[in-house]
Specification:
By secondary structure, the protein is of the alpha/beta class. Helices cover 34% and strands 18% of the residues. The chain contains four helices and five strands. Helix 1 runs parallel beside helix 2. The longest helix is centred in the N-terminal third of the chain and has 16 residues. It is globular and about 35 Å long. InterPro entries: DsrEFH-like, Sulphur_relay_DsrE/F-like. This is Peroxiredoxin. Pfam families: DsrE.
Length: 119
């Protein structure tokens, strides 16, 4: 199965699009894909322990549960600049998350046989 890199840029301001990114990431991880989920822009709020707004979507799995599925077998990274703009430090990150910048994102996306999605 090909690696999958997903970049989510939104949160409560666009709940359906945000939830779709987390749902796709969790579904792919549960299916055995090598998933790398990037939290950028407003989605950086989900990197904080216990963080991220409740999207309030009917029939949607809570983001916290979807992140647990991704973290069980994949990677979740918060954009360094996005975190800094929101006052989020590495000490604030939920367990298992990492902080990195554009160089690592480009490396992951440009890898052989990678499928990339942006939400």
């Amino acid at each position: 199965m090909r690696p999958l890199v997903i970049k989510v840029t939104c949160a409560a301001g666009d709940p359906e699009r945000s939830n779709q990114a987390f749902t796709v990431a969790a579904s792919a991880a549960a299916a055995g894909a090598d998933v790398s989920l990037w939290l950028t822009g407003d989605a950086a709020s989900y990197a904080v322990a216990g963080g991220g707004p409740d999207l309030g979507l009917e029939h949607a799995t809570p983001v916290a549960q979807l992140l647990e599925v991704v973290l069980a077998s994949g990677r979740v990274t918060v954009c360094t600049q996005c975190a800094a703009r929101r006052g989020i430090t590495e000490a604030d990150l939920a367990p298992g998350l990492r902080m990195a910048g554009a160089a690592l994102f480009a490396e992951e996306v440009l890898g052989d046989q990678v499928q990339a999605l942006v939400y």
